[in-house]
Amino acid sequence: MRVATWNVNSIRARVGRVVDWLGREDVDVLAMQEIKCKESQFPFEPFEEAGYQVQLHGLNQWNGVAFASRLPMEEVTVGFPDAPGFGTENEDGTLPLEARALGVTVNDVRLWSLYVPNGRELGHPHLDYKLRWLATLAEDTRGWLAANPDQPLALMGDWNVAPLDTDVWPTWPFETSTHTSAPERAAFAKFEEVGLTDVVRERVPEGFTFWDYQQLRFPRNEGMRIDFIMGSKAFADLVTDASIHRNERKGDAPSDHVPVLVDLADDDEDDDRPMIF
User: Fold this and answer.
1) Within the chain, what is the greatest distance between any pair of CA atoms?
2) What is the pLDDT of residues 212-262, one digit of tens each?
3) How many percent of the chain have pLDDT more than 90?
4) Do 264 and 238 contact (CB within 8 A), yes or no?
5) Domain for residue 179, yes or no?
6) What is the CATH number of the domain that holds 75?
7) How would you write 71-139 as a 3-class SS string?
8) 26: left (phi over 0), alpha (psi -120 to 50) or beta
9) 141 with 155: CB under 8 angstroms?
10) Which of these, 233, 205, 225, lies nearest to 141 by C-alpha position?
11) DSSP at 220
């Protein structure tokens, strides 16, 4: 099974690119982030014509997560327990929950599409929200692994954290920026403590996944590695290959992120992909 994640930065603006890439790369399941639309606005038809069904969680023109799969999706879960909210309080005193997490099960593999809050800037309330969001998800992940340790589990998406200094360009302003602060990196490391690993890093040790549109960041290769597939041991044991698709940052109207992909071994499924000599 071929599984990928991609922050598409508005699916309505980039549906053609996304569907074309799915076909070219023979992807079975794609986790998407920043779809930036409600269900009524989502461009289902191109996906369905290409043989994919879609599950999504989108509330407005911001955030939003989704899956496109040509295999059956089961146990669809919107959000995770006790996820914190952000913004103006509701009438009952609670904070609005944003569309940032969606879980599905495909071929008994549990997958999550995640769009971690950005944090905005050091000292901003959004950074506190980001840290609470990650801490809550880490504890929920600990519970999922304890309850079902043999089921492959992967948390995929835009983590908005660069855990290593080499995950940003050399002149990155460490002292004044989010994404590389000590609390954010500690929050990311918590997922490794509870039992997940970056299943791509071993096979692709170098490479960015995001380049800002401004200041010629892509031509200068001033990027960041902030999109990850964090897998349980049962998931990692299935991984046979991994890749970062840098070329998807090129061309007309690209997303500012690129896809990250892994291949999973599946003895129960015939591999009918064409042989390449």
Assistant:
1) 63
2) 999 999 999 999 999 999 999 999 999 999 999 999 999 999 999 999 999
3) 90
4) yes
5) yes
6) 3.60.10.10
7) CCCEEEEECCCCCCCCCCCCCCCCCCCCCCEEEEEECCEEEEEEECCCCCCCCCHHHHHHHHHHHHHHH
8) left
9) yes
10) 233
11) T
**Residue 237 sits in which domain range?**
2-264
22-56 tens-digit pLDDT: 999 999 999 999 999 999 999 999 999 999 999 99
Structure tokens at 138: 């880490």
Q: For residue 175, is it within any domain? A: yes
Per-residue tokens: 33: 């982030």
Cβ atoms of 76 and 94 within 8 Å: the answer is no
Q: Tell me the DSSP string of 18-43.
A: HHHHHHHHT-SEEEEE---S-GGG--
Tokens encoding 226: 């902030």
Beta bridge partners of 33: 7, 65
In a domain, 177, yes or no: yes
Neighbour-count burial of 53, counting CB atoms closer than 10 A to its CB (0-12 exposed, 13-18 middle, 19+ buried): middle
Average pLDDT of the chain?
94
Would residue 179 be called left, alpha or beta, if left means φ above 0 and alpha means ψ between -120 and 50 degrees?
A: left
86 Cβ partners below 8 Å, 6+ apart? 95, 96, 98, 117, 125, 126, 129
Tell me how many domains the chain contains.
1
- Confirm whether pTM is higher than 0.90: yes
Which residue, among 29, 109, 14, 97, has the nearest Cα to 57 in the 3D structure? 97
166 Cβ contact list (under 8 Å, min separation 6): 206, 225
Q: Does residue 275 belong to any structural domain of this protein?
A: no
